[in-house]
Every structure is written in structure tokens, then in C-alpha cells.
Amino acid sequence: MPVSWLERGDPSGRPLLHFHGWPSSRLEQFAEEDLLKKHKLRWFSLDRPGYGESTFPAEHTFKNWAATVDQWATDQGLDQFHVLGFSGGGPFAQAIAAHLPHRTLSLNLIASLSPFGPDFLNHPPPWKGPANLILNHTPQIAVSVFQLFNLYRKINPLAYERLQLSNLHPLDQKILNSPETLERFAQSHAESMRQGVRHIIEDLLLYKSNWDFNHDSIICPTRVYVGSADIQVPPECSKWLAKRISGATLTEYPNEAHYIAHLHADEILGDL
Questions:
Q1: How far apart are CA 78 and CA 88, in angstroms?
Q2: Predicted structure pTM score
Q3: pLDDT digits over 25-38, tens only?
Q4: 5-270: CATH homologous superfamily?
Q5: Residue 199 backbone dihedrals phi, psi, to 5 degrees
Q6: Using CB atoms within 10 A of its CB, is residue 2 exposed (0-12), middle (13-18) or buried (19+)?
């Protein structure tokens, strides 16, 4: 399956595969070039199926994504790599570590989603209430709503970003509320919806499904980072993952929210 990606950092550095949030794209970033070079990292940010120019497959599963990344890494001449997943990219990063244990050097999760349910994290998910009913019974309504959002975004990209910003925790608003950052987000969101919006809803349905891997299969060093005041993804997700994945470490930032990577990029990348 064709994948679009962005390479940054040190061309001779240690490979790091970055999996973007939901909805976002390969243009998402929290670390500047000099920081990547400082830590000798060769950063690859891959667009998930349907995002950017990546093809959306007939069957959207975590296992298929791992197979796609496996082939992509072979094509790039990468034998092994570190993996980093932010927010909605976290489940896809976990899938890589579980399905490709021989290639994954470390798993790094920032404000990541976890599986929800009685046998997993028994906590209300972000899509609780009416959103859950719509996704369960009439996902086309969710597609139509996102199509309207996308139309508004095309008409006034910065107004759309400010609307998104208003829904974040005040701590995150303070971090992101600059013309340069909002412009970056506008570019990333434009790429995320280049092919439409159906894949965005398919991601939500995949998050809600029974994940096709077992966390016992993750055997690489794993680091989990979370802000205690996160309102985008419940902090309980990160705490569950840190307990469920053998040997995982948890770094919790008190009184910080979702976009902790923008404040702690040097520390997070230095841990690799």
C-alpha cells in the first residue's frame, strides 16, 4: 500500500517512526530540526491510511497497518527503528511494536489512547454519549458532520484552527496559540483531509473495535508520557498502558494537559 511520509533530522541518525494524532498528518511536529539533530535522530513521519497521499485499503486493521509499515521499512532499507505515537497515533504505534517485535527498538507513547472495555480500560472513552451511538449505528452521520467541518476549514483555515483551539484545555491553548503554530496545524489538517474525511471516522471505528494484537507481544522498552490534566484523551489510558505493557515506565506531568510533547520534547527524545 503506498504511503506518504516526511523525513527530517539527522540523515545518519537513529531511525524514529512517528505516528501522528487524530486527525492530523505527517506534517505534525513537536521537535525542531536542531533538536532532532542534537539527539541524532532520523525522524520519519508516516501518514496513516487515507491521510495525506497514503492509500486507504479495503480492510482497515492494525495488522494491515503493521504489514504496510513492515514493507515500507524494507523499501527504505531500515532493519530496526524506534516508534513514537502521539494521541490517536498511539494505538498504531502499539500495533507496530506488537506485530513487528523484531524490528521495534523502543515504543514511546505520548497521551496515547488505549483499548476500552470491561477486559481493558473500564473507563468512559472520548466518544461517549451521543457520539458513541452515532458511531455504533449511523457512522454516515459522523462522516457528514466532518464533511461540514472540512468545508468550513477550506473556506477559512485559521478560523477553523481557532475553533479547534477553543475546545482544548486552557493550558494547551496557551502552548498552541501563536500564528506560527496555528499555521502548522492548518497545513497538517489540510493534508489530513486531502482525500476527504471517511478515513477519519474509520479510525474512530477501529479505536472502538477489538484490537487485533495482544499487549503481551510488546517486548521492547516502552515509555509512556501523560499530562494529568489532559481532557482530550483520559490520562487513565496512559496509566493502563504503563501497567499492561511489561516493563513500561510512566512519566506523568502534574497540571499539564494534552500537548506535553511541545514542552518536553528535549526530555522525551533524550530518553530514546
A1: 24
A2: 0.96
A3: 999 999 999 999 99
A4: Alpha/Beta hydrolase fold, catalytic domain (3.40.50.1820)
A5: -65, -30
A6: exposed
